[in-house]
Every structure is written in structure tokens, then in C-alpha cells.
Amino acid sequence: MQTADHPTLVQQPPDRQERTTYGLQLFAVCAALTALALKQAPARLVGDTKLDLAIAPLRLMSRALHLWDPSRDFGVTQNQNYGYLFPMGPFFALGRAIGLPAWAVQRLWWALLLCVAFLGLVRLAEALGIGTRTSRLLGGLAFALSPRVLSTLGPISVESLPYCLAPWVLLPLVRGGSPRRAAARSAVAVLCMGAVNAVAVLAALPPAVLWLLTREPGPARRRLMAWWTGCVLLACAWWLVPLLLLGRYSPPFLDFIESASTTPR
Question: 100-145, pLDDT tens digit by residue?
Fold first, then answer.
């Protein structure tokens, strides 16, 4: 019986307790990654991709709407600046709008990429049924702090973005459900990759393509592949058109800076 001196204790179900503990663990890792990003050279700006993106993001985004940029080097053909229109440009513009220092916005952007990469791999491992909760946390941390991320996060973080979002492209396809919804959710992750480096975006798609190709043949796979291809093309359309236009006027500068004959020399 329940008495005033001995009230009945209400305990949470074990599975609920485990989910709560697991959620706190995910939060703790994300908090640690955020602290790590904020600790890097506080109060100092880094020349991450475009320095004016941190100082005057709206001005950079307005210039990105035009093929010709007269603000530097006596005028130049802009190099995929439209890629900053989403999501990197709005993130920095929002940070500046609410009064955060430019360096803090820059570090919070890094923290966002680290957390997105970590959570994406953890959720993907869960959906695939790989490992234990502890091993998934360690795997997600290793993915977020991989050499690819650490070598690009400071000088050119926008190229880390497709890598960090790659697990989120595959995750809806693994979870299954409606082919249309799974394809649309996967394409949203592709949309969020930006468009500063089209090759980096395309390089993040093979895991999803391999997953689709290795499913059981049949009408279900054909529907999912058709929806996914259409949704991804739609997600990339906003930068494919400007890229084709840029290709008509921009000189092939990659031949002079990134060709196999130039880089070893």
C-alpha cells in the first residue's frame, strides 16, 4: 500500500532511460565539438574560403548574383560565388544580423559542420544496425575529426560540407518507406551541400548510388531510383544552370593550377 511516509516511486521504462542517456551522450559530444571549434584562435578571423563572407556576407551574396565582379583585380569573372547563396551565406548573414562577432560566426559554422558529420554517421550506423552505441559514437567522432575535415575546415570549410552531409544523403534511403519521401529527404541533404565545388558535391553521391544499385531488383527499386534521380537533379538545378553559364565565359583556369602536370612540377 502507498502511505504518506512511503510514497510509491515511479521509474521510467528501461528503454526510455536508455534513450535519454543516449541522447545526453550525443549532446555531450556535440557540445565538446562546439567547444573545440570555439577554442581555435578566439577573437581572430581566419581566411576561410572568402574573408569577406565573414565580414560582409550580404555584400558577397549580392555580388554572387552577377557573372562579372568589378570589386577586385580590376574586375573578374566570378568563380562559383553563387555557391555561397545557400547555405553558407545565409548562415553568416544571420549571425551578423543578431550581432555576433564575425570570428564567432565563423567558429559556429565549423562547429555545425562537425556536429552534422558526427550525428549523420551515428544515425546511419543505427539505421544499418552496425555496431553498438559506444562504437557508433566513436565512429561518428572519427568521421567528424577525419583528416579530410581537419585539413579543410579552417582554410576552405565549404569543401568539407558535402563530406559532412554524405551520410544524410544515404540515411533516408536506408530507412526506407515511401520512395517519394525517401528520395525527397535525400535530395534535401544534397541541396544543403551548396555549390561552391560541384565536383565535391558529386563525389558525395556514390554511396547513395551504390546503395540503390545493390537493392533487390524490381519495381520498388526502379521507383526509388527514378524518384531519387529526379529529386537530386532538381536540388542541383539552381547551381547547374549558373555553372553552365559560367563555363561559357570563364577561362579554364584549372588547367593552370590543378592539372597533373602542374601540381607535381
Answer: 999 999 999 999 999 999 999 999 999 999 999 999 999 999 999 9
- How far is the C-alpha of 62 from the C-alpha of 82, rounded, in Å? 9
- pLDDT tens-digit series, residues 163-190: 999 999 999 999 988 999 999 999 999 9
Residue at grid coordinates 544523403 = 169
